[in-house]
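Submission sheet (multi-component)
Chains listed below:
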Amino acid sequence: MDSPGDIGVSRRGLLTSGAACAAASAFPASASSKEPIAPMETPPTLPVQLKVNGKPAELTVDTRTTLLDALREHLHLTGTKKGCDHGQCGACTVMVNGRRINSCLSLAVMHDGDNVTTIEGLGTPEDLHPMQAAFVKHDGYQCGYCTPGQICSAVAVLDEIKAGIPSHVAADVAASPAFSEMEIRERMSGNICRCGAYSNIVEAIREAAGRQA
Amino acid sequence: MKAFEYTRASSPADAAALAAKTPGAKFIAGGTNLLDLMKLEIETPAHLIDVNKLALDRIEETSDGGLRIGALVRNTDLAADKRVRRDYAVLTRAIVAGASGQLRNKATTAGNLLQRTRCPYFYDPNQPCNKRKPGSGCAAIGGFSRQLAVIGTSKACIATYPGDMAIAMRLLDATVETVKPDGSTRKIAIADFHRLPGDTPHIDNTLQTGELITAVTLPKPLGGKHFYHKVRDRASYAFALVSVAAVVQKDGTGRVAFGGMAHKPWRVEAAEAALPKGAAAAARIAFAGATPTHDNAFKLPLAERTLAAVLSEARG
Amino acid sequence: MKFDTPATTNPIDRLKVVGKPTDRIDGPLKTTGRAPYAYERHDVAPGAAYGYVLGAAIAKGRITGMDLSAAKAAPGVLAIVTAENAGKLTKGNFNTANLLGGPEIEHYHQAIALVVAETFEQARAASSLIRVDYARGKGRFDLEAEMASATLPKEGFGGPAESKVGNFEGAFASAPVQLDARYTTPDHSHAMMEPHASTAKWDGDQLLLWTSNQMINWGKGDVARTLGLPEDKVRLMSPFVGGGFGGKLFVRTDAILAALGAKAAGRPVKVSLQRPLIANNTTHRPATIQRIRIGTSKDGKITAIGHESWSGDLPGGGPETAVSQTRLLYAGENRLTAMRLAVLDLPEGNAMRAPGEAPGLMALEIAMDEMAEKLGMDPVEFRALNDTQVDPEAANRPFSQRQLIQCMRIGADKFGWAKRAKAPGAIREGRWLIGMGMAAAFRNNLNGKSGARVRLDGKGVVTVETDMTDIGTGTYTIIAQTAAEMMGVPLDTVVVRLGDSSFPASAGSGGQWGANSSTAGVYAACAMLRDKVTAALGFNSADVVFEDGKVRAGNRSVALADAAKGGELVAEDHMDYGDLAKKYQQSTFGAHFVEVAVDAATAEVRVRRMLAVCAAGRILNPKSARSQVIGAMTMGVGSALMEDLAVDKRFGFFVNHDLAGYEVPVHADIPHQDVIFLDETDPTTSPMKAKGVGELGLCGVGAAVANAIHNACGVRVRDYPVTLDKLLPGMPAFV
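Outcome: structure written.
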């Protein structure tokens, strides 16, 4: 150890001493280096059958593979985006059995037999889903990376309002929710758009909702 | 993420038995917190037991006028249940104040109770954290602690319990039903379910190895006006700085529980007796002996003012 | 083409296509998930292996030992790249810290290894099997503590470190009304939605790199430099960029490690930075401490204005140029600006959307509000009184266009500013205290040399190729509009190809210079193509008109496509600039108006209404330009209310390093937003007569929000973000 500010190194990895503050002496073994655990010879894999955008898909995946990575890396359906991989952004939103979820926080093997709808299943560039068309018309996107998640969420949000699922902004949670901009903003809040297209996205959803109604 | 074996459980008792005899086993239901932590190797189960196919997804009325909520009832479904919205609005309000629509579609009743802290040092495997690695120290003490606990802390840990649903469950005096590896069942009062950190902050709750939550029951409705006021920096999709769950009766009596303040939902029954006297009186009792940091001392006046807003709304 | 005299009438002025609120031409691809981003190139790099980056666990010090054996033995692992085996790497011209650290560690989460494996799951798991021993060194992590050691930075992008006009100290001391206040802005993270990502493939000694990057030409140079390759052996492709905001101006570790990993593994490799790594591994907007002094006469004329700013960066880095707008925005005979730079061992500071002006105006425009309050003047009137039509440091140098007063007056009118209560805390709706605030917006216009190639085929299809990028800004569309206008064809006969270093070098996307510069480059190439067309068709080019897919002069009209019957016509040119930007101060102006509600109990702030009025030259596409502005306004709300990279001053890192910890605005934070563009053309900027707008939209927003909060509840917060914990101590009791 050269100075009190330095850190001693033990055979177990990083050890702090009086690092930068007095409290640091309470840290016997800072975790810079994890204890290596002998890796398994071959990681377990399992077969899984999905129905993706109406088409059956049979995969054999590492048990660790998320639904998101199964879609993007195995099925090459890259429309579903990985923005954070931790359920903090919503870019990976897809619908499973009709409900929107973050596909990054779900294992593919947990979805055996499930029906998955991704952005690719909603429409094509030549034949846009009404929600996709509304996003184009109202410029409800900029860089485009959160956009598939926003659109999948938006489609699901309209269904959730119809199904009477309450939200945080309801004055009376016992009452049936009504379509309003406040409701849309709250329900869409799990989809972050750093480009800041929110105001336009709400316009797009309002138009798509009008068309649906 | 460490490699793991994956098994789908066939019954709650089998799941518990399998979990007890399999080293490093964990249950997975919604997975919204567990997988998040597994990606960072904060959780490293060698075996995941998927309980999603167990038929624990119903909400039934109990003989004493309450509700029995299956462990696998998704947050969205629990919040949307007509009986919950009518009789336990504080629970619906708490659930819809949390996370996002996508996460609530996945997250389960039992899993939400087991949600782990969001302390940023817990989330960074390079940093000392007694909750993640017992004995390594607590980097949050003396570090960035704006979100962290102000009461019930210890020298080993100042983490908060991050959830919303459990705050309402605590207010409602819910009971957690479990099945143990030997097939026996037990009931745990929600007040006894979450722990304070003490010297063993790595233990969040009083579940035993292999013990599986099967349901959460609510006693008969309390009546009164129901509130869940969650305070945060952004308007949605954020953890609480402070939250106040309350049921207030016409005569001004009631119950109150706080989120964002401690390692567990914070309810002090003695403080509730002071509710008719106002927020300051109740908060004084509820937070007696608080040990805030420089970063989070604001939570004490904030909790009091939030409670005052709730009481004001209850009156009006 | 050289642009050295103000533009006169040209084909763009017809505005048949340019200036129309056209839907983005890339919209159908983006909204259906068919636009391929850098990590999604199964089409061109099939079978790519997966790279996973390991970041340093300490902020400063050295690696004393690295044991790769367990990781190497892990299932699926193909290669591990570290500084020890990577060969010689040279730091890029645009990088401050090395992109692959070790043994020296320069900042937390600096990349120290890339694990390449058959699958993503295998690479991620193996990365945690690398055992690293460190010797932690002493670091400097606290800007406040380092203020005294801060020094004068070198002159850089933001101008000189100091500027002085007249006698500031004397004039300030004798001013009848004075403000001397200190403001702070925290470190900000770009937090674009697409993580930094690259796919690398070696074709012999040629490197193909699909990467998410704003500046292809800079990137090509720095990839070549870092890897020691000739530039012609490096090809960058970045057709879609999932947000950048300055965070992708430079080559980052994903690109370098993908290239090294692909070489080591002998097959294509792709790398995406995991979200929890991004805040500390990449760049950020540095925190500032700012001191502002304003002295006025009793009737509000500024006689002295001083703005000093302290920021920090790694050794060799640069300052956050937070004082630059203060040299130009308001009149005043006695002036002072100064920047000081401290050495900090935090991650690398660098440009983020509107570098300099964004944090600078966050402070200056609160100061102006405070000064107006002291004077008992309306904030709009105080600013209008101190407007200047010339560079306040050089009276002979006029602004090319300056409609700041018009922006403020029109905005005040449309927003209902007259209803703002003069005294704070006067308007209450239930539990909500309501207030309005405003701020001036200012951002300099920059032009950059920009090239393009334009092709005309026998079917009349016009194809534009340039290495310009579209980072959400709408570049595809405005370039198509430019080419369509120039060649007289409908928009759908124009094909635009972007973001490929094999195309002519453009100005790239940054500093809000992209739109005007890149379309000016396309203008130049199209002008050359028009000459080739007229020659091919035998016209006298002086009076020829390109319109409706035809080329016409006098009574003669020929289909444009006929010009390419004998073979494709190709023209390549670039726009170069003379000294008009020196003769004229070219800037963009605006005014932001915000209404907020502050919860009287909890001090939570909710933005209820927002309006921006912008004067920024010709608006090439009002739809995508409006989106740029509302997006910037949204980021401004974030900087006002929540964005704050929390520094752990003991261990030297940003603690809240993911999207749950570093909060950016969500839908529920943002109300409907209004934008008004003033009718303006600026003939000094380019034949397009346009300027940038994407950063202007951010400039001043934070202060407008902070001023509205003050108007709502009477609490003045000078340390961003304006969170409830800072408001509560000043709030009246709530019972």
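Remark: DSSP finds six helices and seven strands in chain A.
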